[in-house]
Structures are given as C-alpha cells and as structure tokens.
Amino acid sequence: MGRHSRILAAIGLSLALVTGPALAQQSGGTLVQVTVPEPPNLASYLSTSGPIGQVAAKVYEGLIDVGDGLTLKPSLAESWTVSEDGKTITFKLREGVTWHDGKPFTSADVQYGIMNVLREVHPRGGATLKVIEAVETPDDYTAVFKLSEPAPYLMISLNGYESPIVAKHLFEGTDPRENPTANAPVGTGPFKFVEWQKGQFVRLDKNENYWQEGKPYLDRVVVRFIADASTRTAAIENGEVHFGAFGAIPNIDVPRLGEMPEIDVTTKGYEYVAPIMQLQFNVTKAPFDNPLVRKAIATALDRQFVIDNIWFGFGKPATGPIHSAFEPSGIFTTDGVESFEVDDRIAKANAMLDEAGLPRDADGIRFRMIHDLTPYGEEWRRFGEYVKQVLAELGIAAELRYEDVATWLKRVYTDYDYEMSSNWLYGLPDPVLGVHRQYHSNQIRPGTVFVNGTKWSSPETDALMDAASVENDPKKRAELYHDFQRQIVDASPIIFMHELEFTTVHSANLKNAVMGPLGVYHSFADAYFEQ
C-alpha cells in the first residue's frame, strides 16, 4: 500500500469507486480531489484564494446557481422578482433547508450574511454588494434587497462561490475575520465538513439532510494536498486521485494522460472566472513608482514564449485588464491600447530604462529588487526564473522569494511589503465583479486579499469605473471600458502576461463533476461514479 493510500485507510475511507447500491441509483463512493496548494483556511466569505473555493463550494451555497451560458438558476432562493426601476429585488427563499449543525436556514441568515459579513470582509463583496443599502426580512422565507441604484451585474454574483451565505447564529457578535468557521465551515451544501488534517487532507461527508432530495450521490469528498507535482500525476494515473483542476495536474503531463482511456481531460468549467496571469508592482516603491520602468519590464517579457515553454501551450497573450472573453459584449478592445509585443524587445526596454534615469553601475547593475512568486506550484517557479533571466538582460538583479500562501497574501495585501509579485486574478462575468477591485482607489483595503494590492490610484479611471457600473446602455458602457483599458495599460501598474487556460483532469468514470461555468467551484451534488 502506497503512502497516500495509507492516509485514506487511516481515516477509514474506502477507495472503492462505488460502494453502495447499483448504478441505477448512482450512489456511493469517495471522490478524491487534489488541490494545490493547501488553502490557508476554508473561509470563502473572507478570501477568494482559489484553493479555498475548491473546497468550500461543496459546503456553502448562494441564493442562486450559475448554469451554462452564465444563466441564473435557483439555489437557496426558489425564485426572485426585480422591480421596474431595478432597485428592489425580492427573493422567495427555499423552505426546509437546514444548516449542517441542524439549525434552520431563514431570511435572517441572508440579511446578516450579506450586510454584516460579505459586504464587510469579502474581497469583492465590498465593491459588488455596496449598492445593497438594506436587506428587509418581512418573513422567514422572504428577503428583499433595497439597492441604491440599478446593478445589472449583481444577480450573477449571488452564487455560492462568489457570495456564500453564512449562518447568523454562528457569526453574530463575532469578528468575521476571526470566526472559528474559517477552519471548520458550516453551510447548507451537499457535503459537511468533518476534519482537516493539515498537510494531508480535508474530509467532507454526505449531508444526509440536503434539501435536494436524493443528492448528493457520493458518500464523501476527500480533498488531498500533495506538494510534489510528479506525485500528483502518479496519483491520478493509478486511481488514488480522481479529480484535479486549475493545473493541479501539471500541464506537461496532460497530453499523455488525456490519451489514456481511464482518464478524461477538459478545459470546460472556467468560463465564469476569465483568469489573467500577471505581474503586479507596488507603485509606491521606487523605481516602480515610475511608469516608464514598469513599461520597460512589460516590453522585455515575451508572452508567447511563456505560454509555449512554461504553460505548455495553454493560454493566450493578454492585452490589458479585461479578458478577451468579454469581446462578444463589446467591452473588450485592443483599439488604441498600447501593445508590448514588439521586435527588439530587450533593446527597447533598455532604452526606456536609460530614459528613466537608471544607469548601470560598474557591474552592469541598474538596481536590485525582490520578485515575490505566486506560491501556487512549479509553473510559477519556472516563470520566476524566466523573469529573473530577462531582468538580468536589463541590468536588474532580481532575487526570487517563494513563501507559503498565508505569508505571501499578508505581504502583498496587508503589509504591502513587496516590490513586484506574480499573480493571477479572475475577471469574472462582469468587470464590476472581478476587474474594478484591482484598480479602484476605494479597493486599497489593507488586510483584504485580491483587491488593489498595487496601491495605484487614478481619479480618471475611478470615474470611468463608477460610470460603467451604472450605465445600462451597452454601447456607452463599452466605450467607458475601452477608455479604461487604454489608461490602465498606459500606466501599467500591472503587466498583463496571458489569459490562463486551465485543464481539469479526472477519472473517466467520474460523471457530472464539471457542471457548468463554475467547474470545481460547483458543489459536486450531481457527481457520481459510473461502474
């Protein structure tokens, strides 16, 4: 028996794919998911760190669910109506739903969770939900959202990944940043938290009282944390692991695994997130307070080389703060947006640094710096090495620093104790949800992760974002975002590298694990093993 099999055996879990009734009932079994890296906590109401959502989405739910084509589906809300002026949304809540501790779910949980938790501490909630002035609760199963202005982007943000509803009785009277549910979540979802053995696994068991009758089909989900990339590949190849998303299975191994009949590979399930890989600067620290220095580095880096040689062909060069997935809506543009895809990139970057007044010393060094790497796996280490080599050609001596997730997040978003960091963030289905948080002055929020960590601020782009948030005319809204893209790229507080294309690798007999645009950020309520 291998080491990782012994881990599961030690907690009495069977690796049998189906342990219960016949296939007709699609019931039973343990789904083993691998997530990289291990999350710092399981508080999806507090952090949008990717690994957190991969676990917490099985435990927490939202008012709505998201279906194919980014359609809205009922979840904790059975139905809803929107007033003619767009400023009142009335939700009819589902009756008979209980929290995992047995307490009933009511409108009081929605009111408290939205107003006192998500609006206050969620990284994106501070921007997305700020239009909600009040949540009225005329009865236990009605929640009425009163908005300060129409917000057409709001409804889709109320899903369980983006806006998890939490239990009032567990949060009232506490600081949500210190609530014990951060490491032992209590939700209404199809799986209940059982235990977390740090460095090894999180165990989630079937919620026998789940409101969707007959679901979930699985007995449990075990989320394992395996640091070594080759070990993760071996684990899915030999059946010890059944599911890995967001690059948990290294891209270099994906083509070979995809040819095996017992393994399936898909790039579906990421439509909701629209991720962009980037380098971000602390623009308050010299010399990165000079846009010419930032643009010189942006010019020197070869995006296609990075895609082909570090991400093994999975990706597309990024052109600015808005993902090309927004192109059908007219929001995305390259018209008038400065491009860093140039010939003689190193020569041009060096000339820009000369112009910035940063001469080389006797050793050929212009300045020294630290590049803080995203602590999400081997690709990021390799990317850091590539950036270091390119910077050396510019006379910039870069030291690479790779820390655990919690330390890195605190360094970048609480202490701002960094100069340049690699990162990747979601664009999400609307720029208000995923883009504004990185650039708006009001999103410089120390202690809140994945918001404006560059400390870059501009009244001009703030005004463009504010206007686009309430503009209902699609053409006028697109024009606002076109100006926004041009101004952001011209200032370059962030270097846009590429639009990430992630793969999900799973056992071929695992069905319905990727359900719609949320992918692994969905609940697994419908997942089952075919035998």
Automatic annotation (TrEMBL):
Residues 1-24 form the signal peptide. Its main location: periplasm. Keywords: Signal. One of its GO terms (molecular function) is peptide transmembrane transporter activity. It is found in: Periplasm. One of its GO terms (biological process) is peptide transport. The keyword Signal applies. It holds the Pfam family SBP_bac_5. Residues 72-443 form the Solute-binding protein family domain. One of its GO terms (cellular component) is outer membrane-bounded periplasmic space. Belongs to the bacterial solute-binding protein 5 family. This is ABC transporter substrate-binding protein. It comes from Thermohalobaculum xanthum.
